[in-house]
Structure formats: C-alpha cells, structure tokens
Amino acid sequence: MEIIATRPESLTKTPFTYCPGCLHGVAHRLVAEAIEEFGLTNQMTGVAPVGCSVFAYKFFNFDMAQAAHGRAPAVATGMKRARPDMHVFTYQGDGDLAAIGTAEIVHAANRGEHISVFFVNNAIYGMTGGQMAPTTLPNMKTTTSPYGRNTDDIGFPIRVSELLATLIAPYYIERVSLLSPADIIKAKKAVKKAIQYNKEGRGFTFVELISTCPTNWGLDPLKSRDWAKENMLPFFKVGCLRDKGEGVE
Amino acid sequence: MKTELICAGFGGQGVLTIGKFIAKAGMKEGKNVSWLPSYGPEMRGGTANVSTVVSDEPIASPIVSYPDILVALNQPSIDKFGESVRAGGVLIINTNMCPKGCKRTDVQIIAAPLSDIATEIGSNLVLNMITIGIIIGKTGLIKYETMEEDLNSFMKAKNPDLLAMNLKAIKRGIEIGKQ
Amino acid sequence: MAKILMKGNEAVAEASIRSGCRLYFAYPITPQSELIEYMAKMMPKVGGVFLQAESEVAAINMVYGAAGCGKRTMTSSSSPGVSLKMEGISYIAGAELPCVIINVQRGGPGLGDIQPAQGDYFQATKGGGHGDYRLIVLAPSSVQEFADMASEAFDLADKYRTPVMILADGMLGQMMEPVEFKPAKTQEEIDELGKQHNSWCICPNEDGDKKHHHEINSLEIDPNVLEKHVNDLYAKYAVIEANELRYESYNVNDDNEILCVAWGTASRVVKSAINELKAEGKNIGLIRPINVWPYPYAAVKAAIGKKVKKVYVFELNTGQMLDDVKIAVEGKVPVDFWGKVGGIVFTPAEIKAKLEACFTKEK
C-alpha cells in the first residue's frame, strides 16, 4: 500500500491536546513539514509561548524552549545568538505576541533577528477562557468585552503584520489564512518561504496565520471558519507585505 | 602608614583626574590604593570630589572622614571639607577660586593662584598637574619619577609638547610645595 | 600579570570575559553603565555577543534563551532594573539554567536615587520573583573581589545549574582599586565548558546520534510533577547550603566585647572603625558574609565569644540582613542595628561613634 501522508518526523508522537476543530494542529503541521522538507530537523529549535500553544515544546521533535508570556522573541534572540549554527523559530498567539509581548516582537523584528515567527491570530485569548485580545474585532463579544469591543474605550484591533512592515529590517512578512483547504495550501507556501529564508540566513521572517477558536467563539468548527472569513479577513487582509527575496518592499 | 586625600572642585577642573593619577602612582609604587568619586548629576557643572587612599596596609574604608590632605579648587570645597582636615594635615587652596579662603590655624595651608599659574604655563588643563606637584613637593606621597613614567607611557609618542607642558607643571608644583 | 587601576564595573566585566562569558544582554542604567559600555567595547574583540536589549525584561529573557543553549551568559543592571528582571529570574531558576546576574545596587524604593545602597538584600536572598526558588548570592566588598567573583559565579552556576547573582553596589561599581586578573580562558576551554551541558541544553542533533528532544522549561502542569520538581530544586539547594558557605572573620577573638556583622561596602567602613578602636584598646570583631545566600548562620553564632555583650549589625538599608543575624544568634545576646538609607554611605567616624557608645553605656 502506498503511503501518501504520514506524521512528519519533526513532530513527536505526543498527541496534540488542542480542542476539537482547533487549527493549531494544522499550523504545527505546516511548520513541521516545512522544517522537514528543508532537511532542518536536526539543526532546528523553537520557542513555545504562553497560551493555547504553551505545550508546543512537547510536539516538535527537536530541542525546544518554553518562554514567559510574550518573551519568545527575546528568548529566540538569545538562542540564535548563542547558537548561530542552529535555526530558530517562535510560535506565538495574538495575546502573547500582540499584547504582553509587543516590545519583544517589535524589537526582534527591528533588529532583523535571524529567526522565523509564526503568529497565530484568532482574535481571542483561548487558554484563559475567551478574553478580549488586542486583535479582537470591533463589537466582538468576549468574556472581558461582554457588551462587544468598544473601540472608543479600548481602541481598534492591532494589525501586527502591517505594524511590523513599517520597519526597515524585516526580510519577509506575509499574512495567510487557515480557513479553507485552498488557504492552507497557500499558507504552506508562506511557511515554507519563511523556513527557506531562515535556512539561508536572510533575516527576520514573519508569517501571520488567521485562525479560529470554535470553543471560545461558541461556534462549531465549520461555522467558525465561515465567521472568520466574513469578519476577520476583511479587517486582516491576507497578502505579502514584505519579501525582499522577491523585491516586495 | 596611610594617607587619605580628598580633592574637590567644580566639575571640569580635573579633580577626579588628580585622585586617579595619585592612586595610579601609589599602586605603581607598591602601595594599596583606592579611588572613590562622587558621582551623579552634580558631576556636570556642580561640585565634584574624589576620595583617594594610599596605604601600606590593606585599605578598609575607601570613604574618608578626616583627610590628611585636602585639595580645594573652589570655595564650596573649603566650605564642605575644610573643617574635616586632620589637625596637622595639608590644605591646598586655589586662591583664584576661593575668595574667602580657610580660617583653620592647625593645618598647613598652601594657598596659590593655581588657575593663573596654569594659564602662565600654557593651559588651564595643567592645573591638576600643578596640584599633583604640590602634593609631591609637600608630602612626598608619591614620587615625581612615577608620574613622569606614567605620563611618558601615553603622551610621549602622541603629543610630546603636551607631555613637556605637564611635566613643567608638576615641577612648578613641587617648587610651590617645598616653599 | 601587573595590577591595573580599574573601576569595579569595568573590572567585573573584564573578569567575566576572561571567565569565558561570550554572551551578554543588558539595558543601560546608572550606576552600572560602565559595565555595559565595557562589554559593548570588548565583546566584539573576542568574538562574543553584546546586545543592548529593548528592556530589562527582554535582556533577562535573552539570557534565558542563551543560557538554555548551555553557554556562559550574563546580564547586569541596578536595583530598579533588577526588579524588572525578576520574572525572568524565576523562570531561569525553574528551568535550572546557569547564568550570572549582576546587581550594582542603588537607593530605593521606586526610582530612588543613583547612590550606593544595600536595599535589595531581601529581593536577592529571599526571592524577588514568584515561586519557591533560591539564588546563590555573592556579595563583594572590593574591586578585586568583585572581579574574582565573576569566575566564581560562572563556576557555581555551571556546577549547580542555577542562576547566581553578584550583589554589589554603586560604590563598588564606581570606585577604582588595583585589580589583578586571572588568565583568560582559551576558546578551547570555553568550548569544553559549553559541552558539559550537552546532555540537557539546546544543541543540534548531530547526524547518526540518537535523536534528543531537550526541553528548556519551567512549566509542569501536573501538581505532583511540579511538587517533585520543587522538592528536587530544594534538595539541590541543601547541597549548596552545605558546600558554599563563605565568610570572612576580621579580628574575631575570645576577648571581643562586641561582634559586628556587615556585608559588602558597609563591612569596609566597619573595619576602619574597628581598626581605630583597636588602637584605643577596644576589642571588636567582625563577621562579613561573603556569600549572603547560602547564609553562614553557624559562623555568626560561633563567633560570639564569651565576653561579647552585643552583636551589632551595620547595613546600608533599614535592617535586612538583620533578620538573618537574629536567626543565627538565637537570642544568646542582644542584637542591635544601625544603618543609613537613601544612598548615603555611613562614614568610619559614624560607625566608630556608634561602637564607642556601646562601651560608654556600660561604664
């Protein structure tokens, strides 16, 4: 029998502990496959955040660090500086990266650290139970915005990719979505590009992956994807914002 | 034998440098030394001071309560530290910047227009070297030769004229100290 | 090697580089600026990493990452900056990473001032960050000792896989004294030091080797696992407490009438006062803890001679080590305290007056 798909060697055998319908598993797999396809499994290391993907260090089958909330880009900086022979990525959610870790991501990007950042944006704090994130959409209800996000009071969602694209140093910034099989194929291309540039030592690479949170949004997996397509994609537009390798500045 | 020195004056008069050269020379002569500056915002424009200890024994406190030698390059320095000089100690005063002087009668006072003498030698910047000369001439705390060797080591090749001016200033200071 | 007249901040930086530190992450703050500036200048010359971080928080987390790779890594700051690092220090202790943190203390609380103080004793020795952990804390009292402690701190950090803090102050950072350096470690020696951690640190999977999956981590979500982890940490700390007690006895003898206890900068001023009073026939001893965690309780207790009427603690704070001295003395004799705060360093004359008063009161 021909095997057409199998677990990538760069993932451990530990089963994912994510909720049913969660797209973290897809995102993990994209990252793991790309690492394997570039033959980097033995030289790779990554940093897990605080949030739903806090246990990411158990899932990737190479040395991993787990960082304090928001500090993954600083931890990755220390790792890359200490082991320039290794390839380093962080995997972070929107609460971790865009709120408590704003300074760390902006400055790691601004230094052009030779790391890849995979930023999973689902507009909510998942692990702590569905609180408002810096990426929560206007009027969107969460447990800490029970009447809907009031932009007069708390401001608008942060478009992190666009924010980082104002900096000169980053080499590659792209926003993709995980909301359909076709989108996932496109997302895979972006993740691969980030890992390729990482392998080639080009500089700071950043991929934002638009995702869902069926559990905390209170929608089933398919409906949550439809909701995200209708509500998130108009605000967080997919596309490449920077690709120095392709002349996109 | 332990000698405690406080140098004080306006920031920019080179008081910290005086202490540093004395400490460095003391170290080269095999003594224990310490150099403790006042630091902070007052160093820029305000009054700066440095405590320097030169001792045959290991130095306990680098903080000086009662100096054996006080170098006062301006009046506020005399007002602040004048009373603390040990009886029989040495007080070096720059009369150009110390209009009121010091009323102590139980210390050895060397008062001279150090700013004028420095200008006469060639530059305000050698005021600190004149002062070091006075300390050498008056107390023999360090040797002239040690100073000459130290200055030679970083000035001879780069700036021989400046070296000559500095050595002249030290010698002039020694004369004043011996008077 | 000839002695060099150097500021404490520069001396400890030079000594760190000589000890094999090639990774330094920090943020500028007075009165430790000469340290970060020295590293900025010298690290590139030895092929090391100097990185001025965007914040104290980022700096300590860069240390977490680099130390997680098993390399000799350091950060330095002064009191308010060290407070910001406390989150990262707790993670580093939890993940059992070797690294060195230097605190050139200044006056507090809050922004305080920039003058020398010892107000971070509690923070350094009793916690500071969250959770059950300890730091090995070394407290220098001279520029030479400050420099020597750099290599000692790295050795202890490597030996016990634990963060080590050097608790200095603005005076030690700013003052110059002659210092003699140990020979610098060669690149081969530094590489060898790094390899000792290859069984647990982040490192490449060499081809052909059995694949490893090392985790740098302080998270143990299962309470039973976390309990074991903390108990294991404290078993390690017990070994440190047994092996790493260090103190200096100064003029301690059977005829002491007063026993002083002081650490760091404060101890030097106390020594001057003891010397002056010795000349006047007053016999006073001093115990100076060199490591303030683990604390030399037994040594303090043992130094209380039969004629000692009082143990006198002098600190540049409101009495933080005082608690440890009281534990050590076990109520055998009265314990008195005097200190200065606000970044003001007491003078030999002030300490002498305090000690003299003990004698006159009796008569």
Supply the key terms.
heterotrimer; A: 249 residues; alpha/beta; Rossmann fold; two-stranded antiparallel ribbon; 10 helices; globular; C: 363 residues; 2 domains; seven-stranded mixed β-sheet; five-stranded mixed β-sheet
Summarize it.
By secondary structure, chain A is of the alpha/beta class. Chain A has helices spanning 24-37, 56-59, 72-82, 94-100, 102-111, 151-154, 160-164, 181-199, 214-217, 221-235, and strands spanning 44-48, 64-66, 87-93, 115-121, 124-125, 131-132, 172-177, 205-210, 239-243. Chain A has one domain (24-246): Thiamin diphosphate (ThDP)-binding fold, Pyr/PP domains (Rossmann fold), CATH 3.40.50.
Could you name the CATH class of the largest domain in chain C? Alpha Beta
Query: How do the SSEs of chain C run, as a string of H and E?
Result: EHEHEHEHEHEHEHEHEHEEHEEHEHEH
CATH topology of the largest domain in chain C: Rossmann fold
Instruction: Please count the helical segments of chain A.
Output: 10
What integer is the average pLDDT of chain C? 96
**In the CATH hierarchy, what is the class of chain A?**
Alpha Beta
Beta-strand content of chain C: 15-25%
Would you give an account of this structure?
The complex is a heterotrimer of chains A (249), B (179) and C (363). Chain A has helices at residues 24-37, 56-59, 72-82, 94-100, 102-111, 151-154, 160-164, 181-199, 214-217, 221-235, and strands at residues 44-48, 64-66, 87-93, 115-121, 124-125, 131-132, 172-177, 205-210, 239-243. By secondary structure, chain A is α/β, with parallel strands linked by helices. In chain A, the strands form 2 sheets. In chain A, strands 2-1-3-4-8-7-9 form a 7-stranded mixed sheet, sandwiched between helices. A two-stranded antiparallel sheet of chain A has the order 5-6. In chain A, α4 (94-100) crosses α5. Chain B contains 6 helices and 6 strands; from the N terminus they run βαβββαββαααα. In chain B, β4 (69-72), α2 and β5 form a beta-alpha-beta unit. With 179 residues, chain B is an alpha/beta fold. Chain B has a 6-stranded mixed sheet with strand order 2-3-1-4-5-6, with helices on both faces. Chain C has 2 domains: 4-195, Rossmann fold, CATH 3.40.50; 249-362, Rossmann fold (3-Layer(aba) Sandwich). In chain C, α1 (8-18) packs parallel to α6. The chains are: A alpha/beta (249), B alpha/beta (179), C alpha/beta (363). At the A-C interface, β2, α3 and α5 of A face α3, α4 and β9 of C.
